[in-house]
Amino acid sequence: METQTLVRSIEKPLLKTNLPTIRVGDQVKVGVLIREGEKERIQPYQGTVIAQHRAGLNSTITVRRTFQGIGVERIFLIHSPRISFIEVLRSSQVRRAKLYYLRERVGKQARLQERFLREPEVQ
């Protein structure tokens, strides 16, 4: 058990604290830091989260988007210094932990039903 506490103490300062709550089915925009020669820029990557792996510092999300009729998936390390921001654009109502079935769907079939969060009523 000593090694686990040691690993956690090393990982703790590296974990990002300003991340939104990300769920499978969310439409997200991920800002990726791209280095081209001497210059650096932030490239946004927008798509649907189809899988999530939670493992502390090694947590990842798999984001899928369709680009020019071809499905493209990228796996992002959430706590990586290369990720500048993650923004949740909309949430969808899903009943599965992994949305791999979206790989076979095209166009309107690949749409997910939006989840609306209710505001608490003020009296």
TrEMBL record:
Single GO BP term: translation
Q: Tell me a Gene Ontology molecular-function term this record carries.
A: structural constituent of ribosome
Q: Which UniProt keywords apply?
A: Chloroplast, Plastid, Ribonucleoprotein, Ribosomal protein
Major localization listed first in the record, in broad terms: plastid
Q: Which SUPFAM superfamilies match?
A: Translation proteins SH3-like domain
UniProt entry tagged with the keyword Plastid: yes
Cellular component, GO annotation: chloroplast; cytosolic large ribosomal subunit
Q: Where in the cell is it found?
A: Plastid, Chloroplast
KW Ribosomal protein (keyword) present: yes
The record's annotation in PROSITE patterns points to: RIBOSOMAL_L19
Q: Which NCBIfam families match?
A: rplS_bact
The Swiss-Prot or TrEMBL record describes its family as follows: Belongs to the bacterial ribosomal protein bL19 family.
Q: What is this protein called?
A: Large ribosomal subunit protein bL19c
Q: Which organism is it from?
A: Nephroselmis pyriformis
